[in-house]
């Protein structure tokens, strides 16, 4: 009888143990569809960039934009209260092209959770720069790779201005360089509007609109004038100054939630 009681006791312990494990089990969080959409603007977030339209920069210099592109990678979503975060990884690179509506959108899957800021790096990771020409977003055919100097153009702004003194009145900012002391890769961290936290549930889609202001290429941290610096086509101190300027061109505008 004692042996039988002992067996039942052992069985009860096993059942309790299994039940305890079942209570601790939780279903893994489902992925949430998350889209970053970059809105190219000039000076005002409501003033959407139009190619071929004349604008005036901080120094009252007229200019028109023909090309506006930049790479981003290492996208992260943070909750600074809880310490939770999601990261896309440095190996994923995206080319944002203001001339292409679809090229200004980045789609990804993120874990459901609550976040209150986003960060990313502008440019191409140094490892990829050492790897030569590649495919996908890093395909040289996209016009963002220097054939004369192994490495990628991190960001590009091209257009015209009567003040440049260049043939065709062009200005060209091809910003690159990943070696110290003139590494132009920039870290950007943006709080969500009004410091609010946003909960991404298990279902539905979310789109975040981020303004990218061309106006900031010319001033902010450094003064970059079209009449004195109309062309930046190689790594160096001037390229780094331009990069430090455009690192401040971003702001989170609005969230759209879709079920």
Descriptive notes:
With 259 residues, the chain is mainly beta. The chain has one domain. The protein contains 3 helices and 16 strands. Strands 3, 4, 5, 6, 9, 10, 11, 12 and 15 form a 9-stranded mixed β-sheet that branches. Strands 1, 2, 7, 14 and 16 form a 5-stranded mixed β-sheet that branches. A two-stranded antiparallel ribbon has the order 8-13. A hairpin with a 5-residue loop joins strand 3 and strand 4. It is globular. The N terminus is likely disordered.
Structural descriptors:
single chain, 259 residues, 5-stranded mixed β-sheet, disordered N terminus
So what's the oligomer here? Answer: single chain
Give the tally of structural domains.
1
State the distance separating the first and last CA atoms: 62 Å
Order of helices and strands: HEEEEEEEEEHEEEEEEHE
Count of beta strands: 16
Summarize the structure.
The protein has 259 residues and is mostly beta strands. The chain has helices at residues 2-24, 126-130, 237-246; strands at residues 31-42, 44-48, 55-56, 62-78, 85-87, 93-97, 105-111, 113-115, 117-122, 153-160, 170-176, 186-191, 198-200, 205-213, 231-232, 250-258.
Blueprint (SSEs and pairs):
Elements: H1 2-24, E1 31-42, E2 44-48, E3 55-56, E4 62-78, E5 85-87, E6 93-97, E7 105-111, E8 113-115, E9 117-122, H2 126-130, E10 153-160, E11 170-176, E12 186-191, E13 198-200, E14 205-213, E15 231-232, H3 237-246, E16 250-258
Parallel strand pairs: 1-14, 11-15
Antiparallel strand pairs: 1-2, 1-7, 3-4, 4-5, 4-6, 4-9, 4-10, 8-13, 9-12, 10-11, 14-16
């Amino acid at each position: 009888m004692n042996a039988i009681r002992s067996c039942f006791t052992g069985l009860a312990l096993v059942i309790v143990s299994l039940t305890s494990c079942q209570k601790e089990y939780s279903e893994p969080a489902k992925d949430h569809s998350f889209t970053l959409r970059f809105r190219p603007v000039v000076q005002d977030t409501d003033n959407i960039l139009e190619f071929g339209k004349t604008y005036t920069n901080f120094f009252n210099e007229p200019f028109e934009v023909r090309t506006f592109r930049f790479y981003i990678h290492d996208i992260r979503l943070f909750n600074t209260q809880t310490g939770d975060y999601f990261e896309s990884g440095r190996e994923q690179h995206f080319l944002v092209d203001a001339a292409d509506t679809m090229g200004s959108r980045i789609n990804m899957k993120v874990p459901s959770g609550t976040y209150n800021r986003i960060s990313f790096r502008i440019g191409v990771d140094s490892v990829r720069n050492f790897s030569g020409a590649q495919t996908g977003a890093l395909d040289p055919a996209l016009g963002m790779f220097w054939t004369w100097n192994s490495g990628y153009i991190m960001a590009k702004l091209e257009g015209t201005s009567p003040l440049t003194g260049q043939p065709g009145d062009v200005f060209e900012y091809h910003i690159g360089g990943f070696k110290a002391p003139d590494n132009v890769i920039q870290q950007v961290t943006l709080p969500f509007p009004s410091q609010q936290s946003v909960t991404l549930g298990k279902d539905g889609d979310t789109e975040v609109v981020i303004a990218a202001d061309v106006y900031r290429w010319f001033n902010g941290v450094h003064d970059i004038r079209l009449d004195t610096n109309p062309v930046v086509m190689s790594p160096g101190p001037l390229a780094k100054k331009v990069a430090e300027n455009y690192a401040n061109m971003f702001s989170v505008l609005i969230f759209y939630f879709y079920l």
